[in-house]
Amino acid sequence: MLTRRAALMGAAGAVSLPIFARAAKAEEALTPAAAPADLSKLKRIRRELVAPPFVHEHEQVAPGEPRIVEFEMTIVEKEIQVDDGAYLQGMTFNGSIPGPMMVVHQDDYVELTLINPPQNMLQHNIDFHAATGALGGGALTLVNPGEKTVLRFKATRPGTFVYHCAPGGPMIPWHVVAGMVGSIMVLPRDGLKDHEGRRVSYDRVYYIGENEFYIPKDEAGVYKRYGDVGESYLDTLEVMNGLVPSHVVFNGKVGALTGDNALKAAVGEKVLFVHSQGNRDSRPHLIGGHGDLVWEAGKFNNVPDRDLETWFIRGGSAGAALYEFLQPGVYAYVNHNLIEAVNLGATAHVVVAGDWNNDLMEQVVAPTEMTGI
């Protein structure tokens, strides 16, 4: 495997070797020596992950005692078209950017089978911000191409959390900005609560993962395109270190959640928006709507804020906002750094069906030509 790892990076091979060595040593040092936990009496269920912005089937209130919830996720290295003429050598969980959202309840056990197929070039792992110990599981899940591993952890804290790849050293930010980031939602066993402790529910949940990409350009200002992920490393590293992204997008590319891909809702529906950012701060805003209840830091033990116009997502975290749509039409869900929303791509649309309410807003006089000037 060492020869393969040296070759996979092409020109960056010599740089990559000490990085991989450090990652392997970290894994060995943190491998625990303890008797296996006896969870044989717990019920097991299997959830099939779906690509964002959608979320797999789940209950909002836990149906009984804690369970072991099984997931399987495959790492896919592939080229992704981010915009016209702009291609990313992406690294993904299950082929999507962001990776799929997992949903469990507090005190459930998450059991993930993580697969790194032999056709991939790089080592990968997974760090769950929802987990406790071993670098969020990253120290126990480092897999080379052609390997798989199974990690189980207890979801002790309710909320929305980021997960991401963290194989060690400079590989960590590169893998994250190449797409290897996702989210897990740990619901309270008795469901979400409002600011007065009353149970609230949602009719739909949408997962919006915000990513910034650093796609290199040539001397003529044209985006470069690479044959594989290893070939792209050195140029991408140089752009990354400048901290100026070429794109800031929702769900992997410009326009991923607009046009035919716009999110859908109806007047009277309550929609839970889960928003994650693995690397930079963001500020979601729903143009024409509000955050009725907002768990800005994403942690459901905390009392939600109310009636927010814009909320803050810290880099390396996920937050949640619940809104009941009251008017039909097209709503823009944006990063309210409007330069990033309009010029770099961080915009989604929600198309809402239903009847207009003139009591909430009415066009008293339509635009007409002014006279007498």
UniProtKB/TrEMBL annotation:
Subcellular location per the Swiss-Prot or TrEMBL entry: Periplasm
Molecular function as annotated in GO: copper ion binding; nitrite reductase (NO-forming) activity
Binding site for Cu cation: H124, H129, H164, C165, H175, M180, H336
Co-factor binding details: Binds 1 Cu(+) ion.
Keywords: Copper, FAD, Flavoprotein, Metal-binding, Nitrate assimilation, Oxidoreductase, Periplasm, Repeat, Signal
Pathway where it operates: Nitrogen metabolism; nitrate reduction (denitrification); dinitrogen from nitrate: step 2/4
Enzyme Commission numbers on file: 1.7.2.1
GO annotation, cellular component aspect: periplasmic space
Location, primary (coarse class): periplasm
Keyword Oxidoreductase: yes
Entries under Pfam families matching the protein: Cu-oxidase, Cu-oxidase_3
Signal sequence region: 1-21
Cofactors required: Cu(+); FAD; Cu(2+)
Xref: Gene3D superfamilies: Cupredoxins - blue copper proteins (2.60.40.420)
Domain Plastocyanin-like: 77-189, 206-353
Domain of life: Bacteria
InterPro entries assigned to the protein according to its UniProt record, in alphabetical order: Cu-oxidase-like_N (IPR011707), Cu-oxidase_2nd (IPR001117), Cupredoxin (IPR008972), NO2-reductase_Cu (IPR001287)
NCBIfam families attached to this UniProt entry: Cu_nitrite_red
Quaternary structure note: Homotrimer.
Family the UniProt entry places it in: Belongs to the multicopper oxidase family.
Protein name (Swiss-Prot/TrEMBL): Copper-containing nitrite reductase
